[in-house]
Amino acid sequence: MATAGKVIKCKAAVAWAPNKPLVIEEIEVAPPQANEVRIKIVATGLCHTDLYHLFEGMHKDGFPAVLGHEGAGIVESVGPGVTEFQPGDKVIPLFISQCQECRFCKNPKTNQCDKGWAAERYDVMALDDSRFTCKGKKVLQFMGTSTFSEYTVINQIAVAKIDPAAPLEKVCLFGCGVCTGFGAAVNTAKVEPGSTCAVFGLGAVGLAAVMGCKFAGAKRIIAVDVNPDKFEKAKVFGATEFVNPKDHNKPISQVLAEMTDGGVDYSLECVGNVGVMRSALESCVAGWGVSVIVGWTDMHDFAARPLQLITGRTWKGSLFGGFKSKDGVPKMVKAYLDKKVKLDEFITHHMTLAQINDGIELMKQGKCIRTVLSVSPQ
């Protein structure tokens, strides 16, 4: 590529400060250093975690930043020491790295990794170091990815090479939301055939969890959301029933217990709200019920009564659906190409990078499932 080894000037959506609209700026993207890959981002999804950083977490050291962590693109150039990738490869950036060498990567029980941004600055959601500058200022790289930019530079341990036949404007969703929800049901909860499940929150992650429950063979999948418009969509992914907590004057856990002879076998909280986390736990049957926390938040403590666990319930958390990222993402892409999992049905809006603030507004109002932004022409 003619740009290899040179600084690239390109467009990116910069978050200069918390709680403010993003600004489309021209930024400079430095060439990749040792073990790094520079990627042309073709498409990116807009995920609630981007909004969380901007409007809820608002960590003062986390700005200015280029947000975005659900993208797909093409390798433009590679730094010294990179053998796994070459220019032209189709790839998905990963917000959870897989170095394949640390104690976590070597342990089949987890998808955590000792390397990458998350090991050091979890609260800030970005490392100190970055290849981005704008107007002479350093701009942080969000979650080690920053997909709201035409180009980004990522450590090779946080990049997955995918099937060249994959449509980037769709498979970008495997970078976060779809793997997160689907894997929470299949890998973390380990939903069993014939079981009864409840999924709280029907955004993209919740709908992917519904799809995961169906994939695993659940008999009843109860979708729980305060927005009745979401049920038709949930049916598409396999939901069998819908409950709106606003339609009842008793706790939702009680409603579900009455519907299921004492509680569901599996519940998945896909909202990121500590009150809903407790409701999801309390909706599980005593003895063997499993409740999984999937929604992302670090703002509040959660609470439960010890007896709820003493009587045999299990409370678990799931990050990126328990997938070891480099291994799992290409497999999910292949499952989509083989028509074993749905993807197109998550996408409700297509926009350009320039329309990103409109996309953020749609998500804040709950009027979309996933908006995909076209970032660069292929």
Name the average pLDDT.
Answer: 94
Oligomeric description of these chains: single chain
Low-pLDDT windows of residues? none
Shape: globular
What descriptive keywords fit this protein?
378 residues, Quinone Oxidoreductase, Chain A, domain 1, Rossmann fold, 10 helices, 24% helix
Describe what you observe in this structure.
- The radius of gyration is 20 Å and the shape is globular.
- The longest helix is centred in the middle third of the chain and has 13 residues, at 177-189.
- Helix 3 (177-189) packs across helix 4.
- It has 10 helices and 18 strands.
- The mean pLDDT is 94.
- It has 2 domains: 8-175 and 343-374, Medium-chain alcohol dehydrogenases, catalytic domain (Quinone Oxidoreductase, Chain A, domain 1), CATH 3.90.180.10; 181-318, Rossmann fold.
- The chain has 378 residues and is of the alpha/beta class.
- The strands form 3 sheets. Strands 3, 5, 6, 9, 10, 17 and 18 form a 7-stranded mixed β-sheet that branches. It has a 6-stranded parallel β-sheet with strand order 13-12-11-14-15-16, with helices on both faces. Strands 1-2-7-8-4 form a 5-stranded mixed barrel.
- Pfam families: ADH_N, ADH_zinc_N.
- GO terms for molecular function: S-(hydroxymethyl)glutathione dehydrogenase [NAD(P)+] activity; zinc ion binding.
- This is Alcohol dehydrogenase 1-like.
